[in-house]
Design brief:
The complex is a heterodimer of chains A (233) and B (414). Chain A has 233 residues and is α/β, with parallel strands linked by helices. Chain A contains seven helices and ten strands. Chain A has a single domain, classed as P-loop containing nucleotide triphosphate hydrolases (Rossmann fold), CATH 3.40.50.300. In chain A, helix 3 crosses helix 4 (115-128), helix 4 packs across helix 5 and helix 5 runs parallel beside helix 6 (174-189). Chain A starts with a strand and ends in a 10-residue tail after the last strand. Helices cover 55% and strands 16% of the residues of chain B. Chain B contains 13 helices and 14 strands. In chain B, a hairpin with a 2-residue loop joins strand 9 and strand 10 (184-193). The longest helix of chain B has 44 residues, at 270-313. Chain B is elongated, with a radius of gyration of 34 Å. The chains are: A alpha/beta (233), B alpha+beta (414).
Chain lengths: 233, 414
């Protein structure tokens, strides 16, 4: 599903150049649940941004579902993002004046799905994250865990190839974190490919594979025995 | 533009951001409102001043004889100058080329005027047929004195509207009624209207009749002329001054008056007076345009400001939309679509409201020199278009920049 070869990325800061990713080789099969771990500054967010086409790489190859991702125009990147990727952010990033339902329906709007169908689909996905009754509520009326579930429903609504989660539990307490991970595991059980960036060990162990980044290189890449979040909920 | 989904998205956004929409709308609507009211009053003042001058024809020149104040060629000062038919006819003959209308006038004094048993105290003036154009009297009933009346010394009279209201309120029309001037019946053949009541309290009769019947001889109390309209205002003034000077010189010579005697023959030109007022209205017009343009600029700046704030406020939302797959142009389109929609609606709202206000209140305004303030619809409409375009341009650059901002940066925006 994802294939990365010798990926480099550096940021220019005045006259200095900060080499963040120093040759990443990495591939993800369909249906995997991968945790990307590393301390801050290890390059894990940069990697996720490149995977999410929110940022470009300096050199190296990146294939997503067999499609080469290189030197995309803004327009093309937007199209690919819409078609291939779903995002879940640490800070939820819901649009605050739109109800839960409308937030979930938004990626479908950019897929040019009709209004009725959009609403039906969005409601269906809200139901799957257990928030059907909250459909008309604004984000400000939801708890953190609920917001993240809405965000997950939104990411899933576009039926992406890969779900990218950037510290999805970073702003949540541990109980809520496990609930969210439980949801992510269930989505993965349905066959969806998911990448989770985290620095929390317990969260990482709820995935099926852990990739350790340090100073811009992968230092460890192991398949693990998944801990079901269900046990902690 | 006709994407129904886009419209729904815009309406959603507007509905859920009422305050933002309201503030944008108010700033645009009030800008237009102020402009229209200002332009309206500017026009009102011009109307008012124009009306002042409509009382008499703008190019009229009047001659009033007076008393000499200087000794000249053996004549003592203090001599009263009396104009005659001959003076008048010679003046007309002499300046035939430059005169449009002309009329002598005689005030008939020491007569009694009766209508039935009622005694009237209005002034009787003998005038020629052209006097109507010089005085700018508008006939609202019947006709004015004509040449035929003058030739036949007809015993006909024209009365002012106020006289009709005051005296002839019991008959349907004063036309055909007779008034009695010192025992001689005069048939009323017309009613005229003026801008001031004072000038409607006159009874006009043919000058020939006035001279023959009331012992006027060939005396004339004053003479009035109008000059033909010329395109250029300065030319008109020059023409009036020229005519005035020549006429004065002629009359002074005929009556043996010192050339520098200012009181013996007075010639008054409306055009010279008008010049003062016209330069005033010109300045007023200029001032209102200046204020209007400033208002528009203020409106444009206001709209631009709001657009900047709106885009700034939506930076994060833009980032989210981009992460979800919105293309840059779809972002720009969305922001502009909303901006154009809101500015256009509120702009026309302000336009309609202010024009309705002028339309309803305008005619009832009774202030000196402000008459029926109104505004040229095309000007106001153009202003709205200008504001909408300015708002669009003002919105475009921040929108464009916001769409270009890196999605990651946009998402970090608080």
């Amino acid at each position: 599903m994802i294939e990365i070869k010798d990926l480099h990325k550096s940021y220019k800061m005045g006259s200095n150049s900060l080499h963040v990713l120093k040759g990443i080789n990495f591939s993800v099969e369909e249906g995997e649940l991968v945790a990307i771990m590393g301390s801050s500054g290890s390059g894990k967010s940069t990697l996720l941004n490149i995977l999410g086409m929110l940022d470009g790489s300096d050199s190296g190859e990146y294939y997503l579902d067999g499609v080469p991702i290189k030197d995309l125009s803004e327009k093309k990147a937007a199209q690919y993002r819409n078609k291939f990727l779903g995002f879940v952010f640490q800070s939820f990033n819901l649009i605050n004046y739109k109800s839960a339902l409308e937030n979930v329906a938004l990626p479908l709007y950019y897929q040019k799905v009709g209004r009725r169908e959009r609403q039906d689909k969005a409601l269906n996905y809200l139901d799957r994250v257990g928030l059907k009754e909250w459909a008309t509520h604004l984000p400000s009326e939801l708890s953190g865990g609920q917001k993240q579930r809405v965000a997950i429903a939104r990411a899933m609504a576009a039926e992406p190839k890969v779900l990218l989660a950037d510290e999805p539990t970073g702003a949540l307490d541990s109980k809520t974190s496990y609930e969210v991970m439980d949801l992510i595991q269930k989505i993965n059980d349905d066959g969806n490919t998911i990448l989770v960036v985290t620095h929390e060990k317990d969260i990482a162990h709820m995935c099926k594979r852990i990739v350790h980044l340090r100073d811009g290189v992968i230092v460890e890449d192991t398949k693990i025995e998944q801990v079901r979040a269900q046990e902690y909920v | 533009m006709f994407d129904i989904e886009r419209w729904q998205e815009i309406f959603d956004t507007i509905r859920k951001n009422k305050l933002r929409t309201f503030l944008t709308g108010i700033s645009v609507a009030s800008g237009i409102f102020i402009l229209v009211i200002l332009l309206g009053f500017g026009q009102g003042m011009r109307n008012g001043i124009e009306q002042e001058f409509e009382q008499d024809a703008a190019t009229s020149v009047w001659v009033w004889p007076g008393v000499t104040s200087k000794e000249y060629r053996g004549m003592n000062p203090g001599r009263r100058i009396q104009l005659t038919n001959e003076n008048f006819n010679n003046s007309v003959a002499l300046f035939n080329e430059t005169i449009e209308y002309n009329s002598p006038r005689i005030f008939v004094r020491n007569v009694t005027v009766n209508y039935g048993k009622e005694s009237l105290v209005y002034s009787i003036q003998g005038v020629a047929s052209n006097f109507q154009f010089i005085e700018n009297a508008k006939m609202i009933d019947g006709r004015f004195i004509n040449y035929q009346d003058e030739m036949s010394t007809a015993k006909v009279a024209i009365v002012g509207k106020k006289i009709r209201t005051d005296v002839f309120n019991e008959v349907e029309t004063p036309i055909g009624e007779y008034i009695d001037i010192s025992g001689i019946p005069f048939k009323i053949i017309g009613v005229y209207k003026e801008y001031e009541d004072r000038e409607e309290e006159r009874i006009y009769i043919p000058i020939s009749t006035a001279q023959k019947v009331f012992n006027g001889g060939d005396r004339v109390n004053n003479m009035s002329f109008t000059l033909p309209a010329v395109e250029n205002f300065d030319q008109a003034v020059a023409q009036a001054v020229d005519f005035k000077d020549n006429l004065k010189t002629y009359l002074q010579q005929v009556h043996t008056v010192a050339p520098d005697d200012t009181s013996a023959v007075e010639v008054w030109s409306a055009m010279e007076e008008a010049k003062r007022y016209y330069s005033l209205t010109g300045n007023i017009k200029l001032f209102f345009w200046f204020v209007g343009v400033c208002t528009i600029i203020a409106g444009v700046v206001g709209v631009s400001n709001i657009m900047l704030i709106v885009v700034k406020e939506r930076t994060r939302e833009i980032g989210i939309r981009k992460a979800l797959g919105a293309k840059p142009w779809s972002i720009i389109g969305m922001i502009l679509h909303e901006a154009i929609f809101v500015t256009a609606i509120s702009g026309f709202g302000g336009l309609i409201f202010s024009m309705a206000l002028l339309e309803v209140v305008g005619p009832h305004i009774e202030i000196d020199y402000v008459v029926n303030p109104s505004v040229n619809f095309t000007v106001a409409f153009t202003t709205v278009i200008v504001l909408v375009i300015a708002g669009t341009l003002a919105g475009f650059f921040p929108a464009w920049r916001a769409a270009r901002v890196h999605t990651i940066e946009a998402l970090k925006d608080e």
